[in-house]
UniProtKB/TrEMBL annotation, chain A:
Gene it is expressed from: Calhm3
Lineage: Eukaryota, Metazoa, Chordata, Craniata, Vertebrata
Coiled-coil residues: none
Membrane recorded as keyword: yes
Localization terms from the record: Membrane
Superkingdom of the source species: Eukaryota
Family in the record: Belongs to the CALHM family.
Bilayer-spanning residue ranges: 49-71, 92-115, 182-201
Name the UniProt record assigns to this protein: CAHM3 protein
Chief localisation class: membrane
Annotated GO biological process: ATP export
A cellular-component GO term for this protein: plasma membrane
Entry keyword set: Ion channel, Ion transport, Membrane, Transmembrane, Transmembrane helix, Transport
Organism: Ciconia maguari
TrEMBL record, chain B:
Ribonucleoprotein among keywords: no
GO terms, biological process: ATP export
GO molecular function: monoatomic cation channel activity
Keywords, alphabetical: Ion channel, Ion transport, Membrane, Transmembrane, Transmembrane helix, Transport
Organism: Ciconia maguari
Residue span of region Disordered: 309-338
Stated name of the protein: CAHM1 protein
Membrane association type: Multi-pass membrane protein
Length: 301, 338
């Protein structure tokens, strides 16, 4: 438990690590979603390609958008981009930096989905089983064109009655899976090399500008957070004052309507303060009614 | 338990992560409810469509309403909407903001339910199994089947054990086809919802940021003001009850002292706290009478103002001396008509 607490605290320590944490969670969620998802290829000629490529590319788009929505900084960036200039100049370098860091983080989950899909192989087998060359496989070489299409389309479905004991089906399946996994590993390698180069070579180009951009993007983020916190605190104090004024005005009203008792109300000060001179069921009811029917004006001057 | 407490603490650390946490919990609850639900297709021609579409659409509607019911801010919105204007104007923008943010949160569980249902495929398979294109997927020319018979056979597709139309159309082929359509619909629905959510959140900084900041501040203010008012009233009620009960005990002891014609006892100089806490009731009989009187005849809800201290030895204790209660009650009764 201590370990989890430390991990949570680490991720909350600054906004960049919060974003990294969200990115990590979304990646884990995407892998979990893929494993929970029950892939079932339709095994019909045109539908296969649509289904296979759809499963490979539509969820990543949704994950990318989720990554943008869950990242607070994307809206901070939009706000900074669209705000009127006012007395503070806009620095496009900062906005570009923010945009690129947001995009990088949002791209992780979709890329992980695509790589996992390719390494698993089912999507590619489903999408491209109809596109292999039937001449290379013994079982499909001697059938007519239409029949071949139908048979190849059924390759992803192991339990189909036509395909149950077909060795050529296994050959096609292995062939496509090999391609799929090769593609998956290649993409992973390329991405990791690109990330490595980007991090290594970055200090060689414009390091000073980069440091400035990072500082000011962090500043904008923190400034917005502190502004929200200050507004919260202010509204709490405002509400407190407003309610005190309301109770005080109730007390004044009660004092005005009673005479010769105000002198006696000086004793037992501690409880009196908390009672606001309201010591009666009717007075309490009147106060509550006034609170609903005539809320006090928003003015505590 | 420790784990839950930590998760709650983490989620409550700021407003934003609290709301994200709530949304996540609702989404998980909705997915868990679906997996716990035991789907049972009736496998009869017209019932299938009703059952399938019912399971797809009725629980989301219930979850949406539940999202509103469980949200504490609904009563706040209703109160702000219906209150008389009084000295404080009403801002429609604030009401709209409050309603929109509640509606957005209430939409999450239904959207998750519909997505999980479509991605699972059982509902659509059940609802549309009679509409499978038999001409392309099976043998439409299978002899001896009228329209009604064919529909009856197709309606049994989701129920593998009783399906008897293998020559008409293979069960696996039909199920795969329907499931493929269902999953495609599911992913399109998920994409549509995330696009909508993204547009709703991103168009705001582009067009209405100033108005948004204002609405957010005042809606938060209304929430805090309500909570602070409740706290202040609770504090007041506590003090009211304390003074009321103190006055009850004092009234009790002076009444009994007057009834027994005893002189008020002079408290010893070093009475201390314990004597004060006894509130003048120092024997079993008096206590029993006090308890009986509390049950039979609760004191009225108005407090007597404390009388001025007189010059006897009681001044040090700060307790009012034995004033005859009757004249006080008369003035108090007038006091209460304010």
């Amino acid at each position: 438990m201590d370990r989890f607490r430390m991990i949570f605290q680490y991720f909350q320590s600054n906004s960049e690590s919060v974003m990294n944490g969200i990115c990590g969670l979304l990646t884990l969620a995407s892998v979990k979603m893929y494993t929970c998802f029950d892939f079932s290829c339709p095994c019909l000629p045109w539908y296969n390609m649509a289904y296979g490529l759809g499963i490979m590319f539509v969820p990543p788009v949704a994950l990318f958008l989720c990554g943008l929505i869950l990242n607070r900084q994307s809206f901070v960036m939009l706000e900074e981009w669209r705000r009127p200039q006012g007395r503070r100049k806009k620095d496009l370098a900062v906005i570009r930096y923010m945009c690129s860091s947001i995009m990088q983080r949002a791209m992780v989950a979709p890329l992980v989905w695509i790589v996992v899909t390719l390494l698993d192989g089912k999507c590619l087998i489903c999408a491209f089983s109809g596109s292999v060359d039937p001449e290379n496989f013994v079982g499909f070489a001697n059938a007519s064109a239409v029949q071949v299409q139908q048979l190849l389309a059924k390759v992803p479905c192991k339990d189909d009655e036509l395909m149950r004991n077909n060795t050529s089906r296994k050959a096609v399946s292995r062939y496509l899976r090999c391609w799929s996994q090769a593609l998956g590993w290649s993409i992973l390698l390329i991405l990791i090399i690109a990330a490595f180069l980007a991090r290594w070579l970055r200090p060689c180009f414009n390091q000073a500008t980069l440091l400035q951009a990072r500082h000011w993007s962090n500043y904008i983020d923190i400034e917005q957070k502190i502004f929200e916190e200050t507004c919260c605190e202010h509204s709490r104090l405002f509400a407190h004052k407003c309610i005190l004024h309301f109770f005080e005005s109730m007390r004044q009203e009660i004092k005005l309507h009673s005479f010769s008792l105000s002198r006696e109300g000086e004793g037992a000060e501690g409880e009196e303060d908390l009672l606001w001179g309201i010591t009666d069921q009717d007075q309490v009811n009147k106060l509550l009614k006034a609170w609903y029917y005539e809320k006090p004006a928003l003015d505590v001057s | 338990m420790d784990k839950f407490r930590m998760i709650f603490q983490f989620l409550q650390s700021n407003q934003e992560s609290f709301m994200t946490g709530i949304c996540g919990i609702m989404a998980l609850a909705s997915a868990q409810m679906y997996s716990a639900f035991d789907f049972n297709c009736p496998c009869l021609p017209r019932y299938n469509l009703a059952y399938g579409l019912g399971i797809l659409l009725v629980p989301p509607f219930i979850l949406f309403l539940l999202g509103f019911v469980l949200n504490n801010n609904v009563s706040m919105l209703a109160e702000e909407w219906r209150r008389p204007q009084g000295q404080r104007g009403k801002d429609r923008a604030v009401l709209r903001y409050m309603f929109c943010s509640m509606a957005q949160r209430a939409m999450i569980a239904p959207v998750v339910w519909v997505s999980v249902t479509l991605l699972d495929g059982k509902c659509i398979t059940c609802a549309f199994c009679t509409s499978v294109p038999v001409e392309t997927l099976g043998n439409a020319s299978h002899p001896g089947l009228s329209q009604g018979e064919m529909k009856r056979v197709l309606a049994r597709i989701p129920c593998k054990e009783i399906y008897d139309g293998q020559e008409l159309i293979a069960n696996e082929v039909a199920v795969r086809y329907l499931r493929c359509i269902s999953q495609a619909l599911g992913w399109c629905f998920v994409l549509l919802m995330t696009t909508l959510a993204f547009l709703v959140r991103s168009l705001r900084p582009c067009f209405t940021q100033a108005a948004f900041l204002k609405s957010r501040y005042w809606s938060h203010y209304i929430d805090i003001e309500r909570k602070l008012f409740d706290e202040t009233c609770a504090e007041h009620a506590r003090s009211f009850a304390k003074v009321c009960i103190q006055q009850f005990f004092e009234g009790m002891s002076t009444d009994l002292a007057a009834a027994r014609c005893h002189l008020p006892r002079k408290a010893p100089a070093d009475a201390g706290e314990a004597a004060e806490k006894l509130l003048g009731i120092t024997d079993q009989g008096t206590m029993n009478t006090a308890l009986k009187s509390w049950h039979r005849c609760k004191p009225p809800l108005h407090l007597h103002p404390p009388a001025l201290p007189s010059g006897n030895g009681w001044a040090g204790e700060g307790q009012p001396p034995a004033h005859p209660p009757v004249p006080r009650r008369e003035t108090a009764a007038y006091y209460s008509r304010v």
